[in-house]
Amino acid sequence: MRDQLAGLLTRTMPAIALIFVMLAAVPGWAGTLKVGVIKYGTVNWELDVVKSHGLDTAEGVTLELLQLAGKNATSVALQAGEADIIVTDWLWVSRQRAEGARYTFVPYSHAVGAVMVPADSPLRGIEDLKGKRLGIAGGPLDKSWLLLRGLASEQHGIDLEREAETVFAAPPLLNEEILAGRLDAVLNFWHFTARLEAAGLRRLVGVDDITQALGFTRPLPLIGYVFDEGLASQRREDLDAFLRATARAKAILAESDAEWERLRPLMQVTDDATFLALRDHHRRGIPKHWGAAERADAEQLFAILAKLGGPKLVGRADVLQDGTFWPPLTY
Hints:
Helix content: 40-55%
Order of helices and strands: HHEHHEHEHEEEHHEHEHEHEHHHHHH
Structural class: alpha/beta
Number of strands: 10
Strand content: 15-25%
Largest sheet: 5 strands, mixed
Distance between the termini: 24 Å
């Protein structure tokens, strides 16, 4: 099975396969890494592939999944030493480094959300959001919301914070509200956007469209696996084994429809359209390149977000902090 999966990587995903070359090692005695995950988060799909196929132990490490209630709980678990690895964004990593912590980041996904509207909505562009009732997931400092505000201001002279009726709420509730006709548009995370797409709603503008309009031509992973630098130095073999195992899982998810059928109960879907939308959006979010160009883009994007979100978003950090991205990993 291991040889077959390695062959799949080599044939279909050379960028991910390169990770195996850079992190090549003969698996030794398997240590244990605790990964803190949101109980129903989409990262569970990738980690389920790792565990179900024994990719972790095959590479020389054992993953223990720590199921937690939400994003804040995962960061608390990492800071308390209850989890070795979590999934979060690199802005949080940079902020923590500015305050003296030594966390660092490895890309997991560049899947992003979108502004969705009903199929028959008269809204056709960002400028049409003026005066409309707009639902927003993630709160006033959500990165996607800040970027949408930035583009609306730059290209259309509109301050959506003042000129739209904004409603901040949990992602599932926002989906319910727009489906019930109580919102004109909703800015939601990618997996909730996929569900709306399956329900027949239309994409007004994607966050990827926004970043492109702001000058970023390459997909940029916003979330990733985050761990302390001490883990990388003290348990390098275990960490490298973890990255090889998750790279193998990404390759399987990128190519195997049968694997997605196996995961279907975990995805909590009731119809084929939603299942396929989630599968396809997830696949499009698998990072294929991570190097100097993407890191330079991240620095520029940080500057934009720092200007829009201020200290409430980035803390003491006025520039992206050195070491935010784990230096040994490029592909």
